[in-house]
Design brief:
This is TIGR03943 family protein. Keywords: Membrane, Transmembrane, Transmembrane helix. It holds the Pfam family DUF1980_C. It is built from 7 helices and 6 strands; from the N terminus they run H-H-H-H-H-H-E-H-E-E-E-E-E. By secondary structure, the chain is of the alpha/beta class. It has 2 domains: 126 residues, no CATH class; 131 residues, Nucleic acid-binding proteins (OB fold (Dihydrolipoamide Acetyltransferase, E2P), Beta Barrel). A 5-stranded mixed beta barrel has the order 2-3-4-6-5. Helix 1 packs antiparallel against helix 2 and helix 1 packs parallel to helix 5. The radius of gyration is 33 Å and the shape is elongated. The two termini are 42 Å apart.
């Protein structure tokens, strides 16, 4: 891979980063919103460096193409002054030429391996088919409950009438850690995507939570009962009331809080898919 190709790749990578961060909200599929300024700055730097490298490479090619070929006819005139030593000088000159050919043909490092072109594939993927946010495929394969250390330590009273819009993470925190049991008898509205359950008569409304990026995501699940399961991975708003658990302490293993569903609506995926 020569210098032009390397700088072209750098420029395209910068354009791809700017496309998903500065000109769309696609970056929210991979990182938290606070990373947007850093992505825009990084993309701009990559574009500037790539364009500067391309300009320098083209200037170098232009200046080298304007060089006049050397006149090797002087060697013939030089031999007129040599006498008997001309043959040796000629042999030395040929040997020097052979050495140059060997360096040119045997040790040409201006080209890299062809496999380096595979580095363009991730860039083309971002331009053509940007990977979506994590969904039911990732959530269904994780049976790890959310870390208890991230649960809320104190909860404000639920006021007003009608269903309370609530993040799934807060619902889980109130269900397990609220000594006041503020969810009792209150209708809540949860928004998430559908994950099938192995247990009959229930499914999960789910939201992925990230600390930094999609690489550290884990699912927040609430088991929904009393409503027919929508298609897998569909985004929904589900209204219902909390079903208090009958056990006294949190048992070992994975136990998700339960919701008695009363209403269900299909919605579009939010611009910010993670909690």
């Amino acid at each position: 891979m020569n210098r032009v190709t390397q700088n072209l790749l750098l420029t395209m990578l910068g354009c791809a980063v700017l496309r998903i961060s500065a000109f769309s909200s696609t970056y929210l599929n991979y990182v938290k919103p606070g990373f947007r300024p850093f992505l825009i700055a990084a993309g701009a730097v990559l574009v500037v460096l790539g364009l500067a490298g391309l300009l320098q490479a083209f200037r170098s090619r232009g200046s080298s193409g304007q060089e006049e070929p050397r006149d090797h006819g002087d060697h013939g005139g030089h031999r007129d002054h040599g006498g008997p030593g001309d043959h040796e000088g000629h042999e030395e000159h040929e040997g020097h030429g052979d050495h140059g050919d060997h360096g040119g043909h045997g040790h040409d490092h201006s080209r890299g391996p062809r496999v380096a072109w595979l580095m363009f594939l991730p860039v083309f993927a971002i331009f053509l088919v940007a990977p979506p946010a994590l969904g039911s495929f990732a959530a269904a394969r994780s049976d790890t409950p959310p870390p208890r250390g991230q649960a809320l330590s104190s909860f404000t009273p639920l006021t007003g009438k009608g269903p309370v819009d609530m993040p799934i993470g807060e619902f889980i925190g109130r269900a397990w850690d609220d000594g006041e049991r503020s969810l009792t008898g209150r209708e809540v509205r949860l928004t998430g995507f559908v994950v099938p359950s192995k247990r009959k008569g229930q499914w999960y409304v789910t939201r992925m939570q990230i600390a930094c990026c999609a690489a550290d995501a884990f699912p927040l699940k609430v088991a929904v009962k009393g409503l027919q399961a929508p298609p897998e991975n569909a985004w929904v708003e589900v209204v219902g009331t909390w079903i208090p658990q009958t056990f006294g302490e949190m048992p070992n293993g994975v136990v998700y809080p339960e919701l008695a569903g009363t209403d269900l609506a299909r919605v579009d995926a939010p611009a910010e898919p993670y909690e």
